[in-house]
Every structure is written in structure tokens, then in C-alpha cells.
Design a protein that fits this description.
- The protein has about 220 residues and is an alpha+beta fold.
- The protein has a single domain (about 10-215), classed as Alpha-Beta Plaits (2-Layer Sandwich), CATH 3.30.70.
- The protein is built from 6 helices and 7 strands, in the order αββααββαββααβ.
- The chain has helices spanning about 10-25, 60-70, 70-80, 120-135, 185-190, 190-200, and strands at about 30-40, 45-50, 85-95, 110-115, 140-155, 170-175, 200-215.
- Strands 2-1-7-4-6-5-3 form a 7-stranded antiparallel β-sheet.
- β1 and β2 form a beta hairpin.
- The protein is globular, with a radius of gyration of 18 Å.
- It starts with 8 loop residues before the first helix and ends with a strand.
- InterPro entries: Dimeric_a/b-barrel.
């Protein structure tokens, strides 16, 4: 989400933190909501990750009821937002550091979206599971890697640079910054198998964000 110039930062955060996210957490199939802010200088500035029971609940009756009962401020701000892209994904895999429980939500996330040629998809998935994620887990501060496949995407408004949406997405969680400059990251990104997978890549989305706020269920 990119709030844009027509909404003050103070009102945007008050609305999102006290109204928008909490309303969604009243839905039983919405488990968590964690917001991140760009650490890479790119737009959109904000990313909120909602853990949900399954991709279809984002269009289900309970979610539609929350939208239908939105306040006048919610309606006004949603119309005024410069750019919003809502995506739902289905989980493919998740690998977590055995001692990472106390470190969630993560302080930093590295989001990597990718499209590959159809004939390269099996190799992409095999590479991620058998080589890339195990090598990523050796990076200092690594907490977790989750992989997803796109279920749906809707967007409105514009932002520069234009947002790309890809079929596969990986979210790498870290407890500290600087992960991109580590020898372990460079090793994970420069293997012969990685180069082989890259030959089939059709497009990528790369974002680095830091923790802004974790939202709790209303009591």
C-alpha cells in the first residue's frame, strides 16, 4: 500500500492500526497481521502480511461483511489511497530456525517474487527446497523461509516504479539487517544450480522491508 499525498501520515497510521487491521482480525480465519515499512527506498512503502486459514477466505462472507460495515472514514481513506494491491497466496513450504520462536515477528523481511518458464517450474521448486533454502538458513540472523504460489491479485491506483506480481513468492525472515552483504548470502546466490534456474526466469520482484507494527486481535 502507498497512502499517497492526500492522506496525512498521522491519520493513515491511526486508521490502519486502530480500525482497518483490527477489523480484519475479528474474522476467525484471519490469524495474524504484521505490517512492514520499506527499508529499500522503494514504493509501495507499506506491506501488511495477514496469515489466513486458506486463500479463499479473503473473498468469503465474513470478510465481505467487514467491508460492508466499514466506517465512513474507512470508505473515504480507501478511496483516497494512491495505490493498493491485495494478493492472496497458498503456502508451498515453510522452514524455520529451531530456536527462532521468540524472534517473531521478524525485524526484517526479504520478499522475492518470481516467474519462470513452465518447463522450469519443477527445477525452481526443487532448487529452493534442496539447495537455496538450506543455504539461506546459514545466513546470520535468518529465522524462516516461506514459499507461496499466487491465488489471486487485485490492484487499483498507480505507483512508481510499477508493481509486478509473480506466480511464486518467497518471504525470508531475518532478526537483523545486513543479510544481503554476508558471504553466506553471496554463496546462496551464486551456485551453478542457481544459474541454471535463472535461465528460465521471466521476471522478479525484490523488496526489503523492516517491521513497523504487529497488530493484535481485539479483546
Amino acid at each position: 500500500m502507498e497512502p499517497g499525498p492526500s492522506i496525512s501520515e498521522e491519520e493513515h497510521h491511526d486508521w490502519y492500526g486502530n480500525e482497518h487491521a483490527p477489523a480484519r482480525l475479528t474474522i476467525p480465519s484471519f490469524y495474524t497481521a504484521t505490517r512492514f515499512k520499506a527499508a529499500d527506498g522503494l514504493k509501495p512503502t507499506y506491506l501488511t502480511l495477514y496469515d489466513i486459514s486458506e486463500a479463499s477466505v479473503a473473498d468469503g462472507p465474513e470478510y465481505q461483511a467487514v467491508k460492508a460495515n466499514a466506517s465512513e472514514r474507512e470508505k473515504r481513506l480507501m478511496e483516497a489511497i494512491q495505490f493498493a494491491n491485495r494478493r492472496t497466496y497458498t503456502s508451498i513450504s515453510s522452514h524455520t530456525h529451531p530456536n527462532a520462536t521468540a524472534d517473531f515477528p521478524p525485524k526484517f523481511v526479504f520478499v522475492f517474487g518470481m516467474d519462470v518458464k513452465p518447463e522450469g517450474e519443477a527445477d525452481l521448486n526443487k532448487w529452493y527446497e534442496e539447495e537455496h533454502t538450506p543455504m539461506m538458513s546459514k545466513i546470520p540472523g535468518w529465522l524462516r523461509t516461506r514459499r507461496y504460489i499466487l491465488h489471486s491479485s487485485t490492484a487499483r491506483g498507480t505507483v512508481d516504479p510499477e508493481v509486478s506480481v509473480h506466480k511464486y513468492m518467497a518471504i525470508h525472515d531475518f532478526s537483523k539487517s545486513g543479510y544481503m552483504e554476508t558471504p553466506e548470502m553471496k554463496a546462496a546466490s551464486s551456485t551453478p544450480w542457481r544459474d541454471q534456474v535463472a535461465q528460465g526466469v521471466l521476471g522478479v520482484e525484490v523488496r526489503h522491508l523492516e517491521l513497523f507494527k504487529e497488530y493484535k486481535r481485539p479483546e
